[in-house]
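Example record

Each entry pairs one chain with its bound ligand, phosphoenolpyruvate.
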Amino acid sequence: METTLRGVGVSHGVAIGEVRHMGTAVLEPPVKQIPADEVEREQERARQAVQAVASDLVARGSLAGGEAQAVLEAQALMAQDPELIADVERRVAAGSTAERAVYDAFAAYREMLAGAGEYFAGRVADLDDVRNRIVARLLGVPMPGVPDSDEPYVLVARDLAPADTALLDPSLVLGFVTEEGGPTSHSAILARALGVPAVVALPGAVGLAEGTVIAVDGSTGEIFVNPSDERKAQLEAVAAERRAALAASAGPGATSDGHRVPLLANIGGPADVAAAVEAGAEGVGLFRTEFLFLDDHRNAPSEEKQVEAYRQVLEAFPESRVVVRVLDAGADKPLEFLTPADEPNPALGVRGLRTLLDHPEVLRTQLSALAKAAEGLPVQLEVMAPMVADRADAKAFADACRAAGLRAKVGAMVEIPSAALRARSVLQEVEFLSLGTNDLAQYTFAADRQVGAVSRLQDPWQPALLDLVAMAAEAARAESKGCGVCGEAASDPLLACVLTGLGVTSLSMGAASLPHVRAELAKHTLAQCERAAAAARAADTAEEAREAARAVLSGE
Ligand code: PEP
Ligand code: MG
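Structure tokens for the complex follow.
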């Protein structure tokens, strides 16, 4: 009999296939005492396993490229944490086998992270994955990961580790479903980058029996277990309709009555450029520059290295707009040499622009590298700062850009509610705003973006978030300046129409979402988008807002 489950759709498309679970069994090595003369050999085995797993993660990263690379390299750094290795060695010296010592040392580390606050919860899956890989290597058993199958399947997991999602083979993996994770988690961002349908935060996902047929609608978040033939036919028809609309969509982003909304790409580095160009991006709306800083967690990359990476991106978009975000370190992207280690609540601590203002030399080098990279190119370079709280922050950033001799438009990201509430004041210092709706939702609802349990509040359809978007867009309009969205909200086609109706002037998203958003926008007039926006804002919950907008846009 068919049953319906509902999670959060985070990557578009329909997939129908059998459930295969991720190999995430926790390998618990037995407790065994080793003789003293084996300690050194055992310690060496542990070090080698750690090194091999770290190198494997880095290698997977360079194969995957882009944002996946940054995530995998961060995992490799976790594996090589000197304190963790020292703890493993201590445990071996006390008589543990290498595998048991790794298992116990990671458990202690995990507990410490958990005790350090909810913020770390999203990283626990990454940490567990690193542990499982090292233990599997030491035990000589297969690595945990995607199932071994020649037939296409729907991958189901509690949560997907970046190491696995990065290398999923889209020809075998029809889609994926996770019990944990929110719409802005790493897994969701990576799924969209891969272009496979995905639903996260689905209660009961891990209880789905292996081999059960399910239908996944990554646009609505619905999962149909044992779908009836009529259901399959209906979903296939919807998918075919969506595909036809996609195929028909090309050219610049606009509503059906010609109101232009440039559609830009979010990229994590030069590796993401090709997909963005192929998807018809009209430029880059968010270049996350963190990836450059992950290679060496003790030092900033040299100016020359930065110039080279920025130049590769700028050259790919001749005469287009490229918005570069300066380094956003801290909270979910800590950097050892910049991020204070002892903050009780890093998401509310020194991160983003605050970090850069504390380390002006890092900002100076980055801005100077950007100025050099843009020299002689016709590109429209724009730079923006993450985590701007108020006018003083905006001024400090604009001053730094001027001092670096940068010939670029200077902007502020709106990720903190105070910046949306006082957008007009912030706009006295900068030339554009870009709404980072992932963090804006996190701070508006006091809901950690990495914690699946609060994903309800991370939903960008929340009317309170829409109100803040409207405030920022209205302020920008009053100042005759641009206000884009570069958070994940822009990648939801229906929401993209609502954002347009709220007065947002450009939308930036992962390349895979561009055709979906372009096709949806082209179906509606600006007036319809405005009506949908008003209906969504009049709602009390995210679900009601989504339904109200859908009703307006489908002419019901
Ligand atoms: C955001 O917060 O919406 C954003 C675009 O920045 P990031 O996801 O990199 O924090
Ligand atoms: Mg952000």
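The chain has three domains: 3-23+145-230, 36-139, 253-530.
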